[in-house]
Write a structure and sequence with these properties.
17 helices; four-stranded antiparallel β-sheet; elongated; 52% helix; alpha+beta; 544 residues; PH-domain like
Length: 544
């Protein structure tokens, strides 16, 4: 709203004038000026919502000591300049970006001062309304009005940017965010934050497509497909091209989130997928050199500049893969007319590698062929004799507040305990723990049973042919009962694994989290019943 278009200015009134004065002045002014213009101004002043806009335009904001502020109504002049640029050619994209940034900064300064003196502004508006015998403004209404103003300005900026071709649009947005945040060194102005929220929504489909492209390579590497050098080199180039395209489009969002002290979640996930693809290429395909090359391309293009935690992780992986590839290959020797590489030592497979724990207490967890590394302590896989895991839900006044997840493994020397709160990471670690340790514990358990040994896990005492169940007596001693495996009822409840006879009279149980290898026993019995059905048999038949 321009100052000369303000209804107060049009009718020669002030915010102190009441309804009767407005009606009288409207009748007088209609005789000398355009009646439609006067009628519109009158209606605006009598409509309390529209009047608020006129009042805000009437009061210039409190000027700070450095005199940097503009009156509120001048903001429309800036936005008109931006809207006029909507017909600009692609060559003007940076000039438009500068105008958008200027508007955002000026509006940010206005909002900053307005928030500091918000109560004073509200008091001044309501003081004049009381003098005019009009209803007062509620604080929330004033806040909502300022918010609508910000949205309108964001829409104007967006309409301008929508006129550009995709490449020019991306360049303009990147230019705006880079200058507005000083390349992630300071917080972005409020209008740029709104612009980035819409930009993130509109680029979400592109992000999903790029992630899906990388998953195709992951599936190929996970299957352990035999690829020749030419195909592997092409795969590296393709993945690098996807990463470069990702950076071109989503760099503004990375800078924006970094300016807030955060990391762009979609970028973290995308580069995490590329990292996992490289690990699969190393583990399943034995192509350590090409796995390292994929990650080196990411580092070389500075794709992780605004993702510091992922950048640190990738660089550690590059160092590990580089050292592994050097150990794997000895110097070449000539043989006839050609040169043959002599394998020296097979590369170590890394099943899992991530930082695990709370925000301020993270530790690196590595599960590999060498063993489990936790808190800088390496435990060889062969030394691990027991595993356990479970979750505890925390409640306050009958309201669930969080869930704590625990993973434990033990050796003859002592146990190790991992505590985390992310369910997805918990499930992923369990999957790799079972793959690397659980299967060997299960096989050793079956071998011990076949040799005639009895095994006790928690309250479950079992042998190769059956299990000891107990009937707990209230006024008498407990009664023991030997049961074959076939008719047993199995179920899990409240963190424990239960075995009962079909009459539900005798039972035995063990805790998943507190007793070692309860999960191994549960999986063992699942496999047994899948294979044997309800026929009588020994557990060790699974070894055949």
């Amino acid at each position: 709203m321009e100052l000369h278009e303000n209804p107060f200015t049009v009718m020669g009134l002030s915010p102190c004038d009441g309804k009767s004065t407005i009606m009288e002045r409207a009748e007088e002014q209609s005789l000398f000026e355009d009646p439609a213009r006067i009628s519109s101004a009158k209606e605006a002043l009598l409509d309390m919502k529209r009047r608020l806009d006129a009042e805000l335009a009437w009061y210039p904001p409190t000027v700070s000591s450095d005199g940097r502020m503009l009156p509120y109504y001048k903001m429309n002049v800036i936005m008109e300049h931006i809207a006029a640029s909507a017909t600009a050619t692609a060559m003007d994209c940076l000039r438009v970006g500068d105008k958008v940034l200027a508007a955002a900064r000026l509006y940010e300064r206005y909002i900053e001062v307005e928030q500091e003196d918000f109560s004073s502004l509200l008091h001044e508006i309501n003081r004049h309304r009381r003098m005019a015998h009009l209803s007062e403004v509620v604080a929330q209404d004033l806040l909502d009005h300022l918010d609508l103003r910000a949205r309108a300005m964001t829409d104007t900026i967006k309409q301008c940017l929508d006129q550009f071709a995709p490449e020019d649009l991306i360049n303009t947005v990147t230019h705006i965010v880079a200058l507005g945040t000083e390349r992630a060194e300071k917080r972005a102005p409020a209008l740029i934050e709104s612009l980035m929220e819409q930009y993130e929504i509109e680029t979400r489909q592109f992000a999903d497509q790029q992630i899906e492209h990388v998953r195709v390579y992951m599936a190929q590497f996970r299957a352990g497909a035999m690829l020749d050098d030419a195909c592997l080199r092409q795969n590296v180039e393709d993945i690098a091209a996807y990463a470069k395209t990702w950076q071109n489009v989503l760099l503004p969002l990375q800078m924006y989130y970094c300016s807030k002290g955060q990391e762009h979640a979609a970028s973290v996930a995308f580069f995490g997928q590329i990292r996992e693809a490289a690990i699969l290429l190393h583990n399943e395909g034995g192509q350590t050199v090409y796995a390292c090359r994929i990650l080196q391309r990411l580092d070389a293009m500075k794709a992780l500049k605004y993702l510091p935690r992922r950048e640190k992780q990738i660089r550690e992986d590059i160092l590990f893969l580089s050292q592994t590839s050097h150990r794997w290959e000895k110097p070449t020797r000539e043989e006839g007319a050609g040169v043959e590489r002599i394998p020296h030592d097979a590369p170590t497979k890394v099943f899992y590698n991530a930082d695990v724990g709370g925000f301020f207490s993270k530790h690196r967890l590595i599960i590999s062929e060498q063993g489990i590394t936790w808190s800088d302590t390496l435990t060889p896989l062969a030394d691990i004799t027991g595993i356990a895991w479970g979750a505890v839900r925390r409640w306050i006044s009958f309201i669930p507040v969080r869930t704590d997840y625990y993973i434990r493994y033990t050796t003859m020397a002592g146990e190790h305990r991992i505590h985390l709160r992310d369910k997805k990471s918990y499930q992923e670690i369990i999957r790799h723990l079972w793959k690397s340790v659980g299967v060997s514990i299960l096989v050793n358990m079956l071998l011990a049973l076949r040799s005639g040994k009895d095994i006790r896990i928690g309250g479950i005492n079992f042998s190769d042919t059956g299990v000891i169940l107990t009937e707990t007596g209230i006024f008498s001693s407990d009664t023991k009962f030997f049961a074959w495996y076939t008719p047993l009822v199995r179920y899990s409840d409240d963190g424990s694994f239960y075995l009962e006879d079909e009459a539900r009279q005798y039972s035995a149980n063990a805790s998943y989290m507190d007793d070692w290898n309860t999960a191994v026993l549960a999986i063992l019995l699942d496999r047994f019943y899948e294979r044997r059905g309800r026929s009588v048999g020994r557990l060790s038949v699974l070894l055949d």
